[in-house]
Amino acid sequence: MPTASSVTASASVFRIDTFVVAADALPTFIEQVRRIQRMLSTVPGCQQNLVLTQAGDVREFNVITLVEWVSTEAMVAAKAVMQERYAEEGFDPPSFMQRLGVRANMGLYREA
Prior knowledge:
Layout: E1 13-22, H1 26-40, E2 46-55, E3 60-69, H2 72-89, H3 93-100, E4 103-109
Antiparallel strand pairs: 1-3, 1-4, 2-3
């Protein structure tokens, strides 16, 4: 198990995002998340790419995305690729989530 001093830029990095999505927005949100998942899976350095969902109450659902990158460098490169694709498409993720009323918590993690 790595210690704080042994973690390097070459260690896997995990992007874990959690979303709370209203039931009526879930199909639209999941469709977009799956589209992004397919794009991310083609980017070099993507080791795993999951979309998970859990029912909250009858009005909302919890959705988690987890992407494991082989390194920080791979993740940074992937972010640039995705931003370019979004710009080409005219897709703005924050506006999309705001329009659907999605609450998000996004972060980067490493193995403890």
